Amino acid sequence: MFVGAVFFPLLGATLAGFFGRWMGDRLSQWVTVLCMVLAAICGVTAFVQVALHGQPTTVTLADWLDVGGLTIDWALRYDTLSAVMVGMVTFISTLIHLYSVGYMSHDATPSRFFAYLSLFTFMMLMLVTADNLVQLFFGWEGVGLASYLLIGYWYEKESANRAAMKAFIVNRVGDLFFMLGMALTFWTFGALNFNDIFAGVDAARASTFTGLPTLEVIAVLLFLGACGKSAQLGLHTWLPDAMEGPTPVSALIHAATMVTAGVFLMARMSPVTEHAPVALSIVTIVGASTAFFAATIGCVQNDIKRIIAYSTCSQLGYMFFAIGVGAYQAAIFHLFTHAFFKALLFLSAGSVIHAMSDEQDIRKMGGIWTKIPITYAVMWIGSLALAGIPFFAGYYSKDIILESAFAAHSGVGMYAFILGLIAAFLTAFYSWRLLILTFHGRPRADHHVMEHVHESPAVMLIPLLVLALGALFAGAAFEDLFVGHHQGEFWHGAIFNGEHNHVLHAAHEAPAWVGLAPTVIAIAGIALAYLMYMFAPGIPARLAATFPGVHRFLLNKWYFDELYDAIFVRPARRLAQILWRTGDARIIDGVPNGVAAVTLDAANGTARIQTGRVANYAFAMIVGLVVFVSVIFLGFK
């Protein structure tokens, strides 16, 4: 069961990837779906046994590394944290695989797509079941590779190639810090196995590195690594561009796999980060700033998938500032509920795109809710959960995060609480902006497009309906286990809280207005969206004309791409051109090419002497004889 949950997706990827042409496209699709169903059965069963029945275990597969003082086993660690992730990843990924059968039905190479999709799932499962940092890093790099393959799946499009390269390169920046953190961890603890690291934390609390507390440096380095995978402010620029991949890829990246890896890493390393208060303050500030920053951008975007992508970036900010204030359980709870409603929103957007003949601009939609009523209904459910409206899944997980930030009773906690409330208002606003412009008002699409608007097939609608149930009930069903009075028995020590950390308990005792504020603010955001886009649709254009600088600033995503282009891309390109033209063409190629040119010129000169005329040869011989006699005569003299 424990092995099957992880390796069934690899089996599906192998069969579809290497034998897809022999099996045929249809069989390849259903083989990978079947493997994912088996993985989901194993994953959910493992969740029940490990998390609900309190039976954590570690399955050792093989000896992996034994070099000097470093010994690493290839093992699957199943504690509650891993079991939650495995159950969620396998379940969500199975639904996305099933949805993809319909969505990718007209694609030229579906076996390749499904092989990549299953490989992506396997790598994420390797990451969350890792028993040591090296194995975790294997999965970490694996999801990076798989995301590159999936974002650039339609490699005929230059924009897809650029987006895939951008995701790969930006993540390498974060991965550098991850590797440095891993190296410092080994230098400090003499081991990379989690059990050995966590057992040595107390002894390492007094150690320093370059004059700084070692645990603080490790926590900051690992967080910077997490910023790349989880698209936090500064290393977020790859996330919206990842929308160039097929919609099921966007759903898998944003709901269950790559972007949640950083949150998982910080929760897994909670025994270390609990003793790094400065690092946690940095995490809180960056997370809260990301939640606000991404929400402001989502308010003006026009691509249906990019709006949802920025909502992911914003929700990840919530998860990180929950970790920063010590509410690790709340962060994982929001990660869990977010998987359901974010997968639902992306797949619903895919259903809209499918119905609109691949149109993604919400300005060219409108008036379609009666033609695709099921998609419309489930997108409402996903949006209500995202906005945190009672009693949908996001209401429970987002509220406990905001209450924890308030209960932290610190400056950075209050900073996170205020920006979190603002982000909640903006989230509700842009969610209903998307709903209204997509489904309501007069049709703004081409007449021929509107004639062909139709509901998606059953193979796409069934996953949407299942995810809608998760977006409705996952929060209420699991709140008590994840963050309630029984959370101690549920987590079984998989997440560590120090003796000083009582933030979750304090959150439950926060004033009533703290719990009520997010709901009131979200309703206000929805009301504003209705006012601006239903009752007075001329307001947005007037605001854009009145504040053109602000509108342009948000539309251009705070100019991060332009800033990085000026600071990094253009100088790197100029340096590359100099090294190419001077170092490569003139020096490296110039030396052998120069020698070759001299040899060729000498050969050509020699060839011109060989005229084939006897008189010329006789004259040359006479000249040579005269020179020879003259030299001898001068020598005797």
Descriptive account of the structure:
- By secondary structure, the chain is mainly alpha-helical.
- The protein has 3 domains: 1-131, no CATH class; 132-555, no CATH class; 589-636.
- The protein is built from 29 helices and 4 strands.
- The chain has helices at 2-23, 25-52, 80-103, 110-128, 133-151, 158-189, 194-199, 201-204, 214-229, 238-241, 247-255, 261-268, 270-273, 277-298, 304-324, 328-355, 373-387, 393-407, 411-439, 447-451, 458-483, 487-491, 503-508, 512-535, 539-546, 548-555, 560-588, 590-609, 614-636; strands spanning 57-67, 70-78, 208-209, 212-213.
- The strands form 2 sheets. A two-stranded antiparallel ribbon has the order 1-2. Strands 3-4 form a two-stranded antiparallel ribbon.
- Strand 1 (57-67) and strand 2 form a beta hairpin.
- The longest helix has 32 residues, at 158-189.
Write the layout of secondary structure elements.
Elements: H1 2-23, H2 25-52, E1 57-67, E2 70-78, H3 80-103, H4 110-128, H5 133-151, H6 158-189, H7 194-199, H8 201-204, E3 208-209, E4 212-213, H9 214-229, H10 238-241, H11 247-255, H12 261-268, H13 270-273, H14 277-298, H15 304-324, H16 328-355, H17 373-387, H18 393-407, H19 411-439, H20 447-451, H21 458-483, H22 487-491, H23 503-508, H24 512-535, H25 539-546, H26 548-555, H27 560-588, H28 590-609, H29 614-636
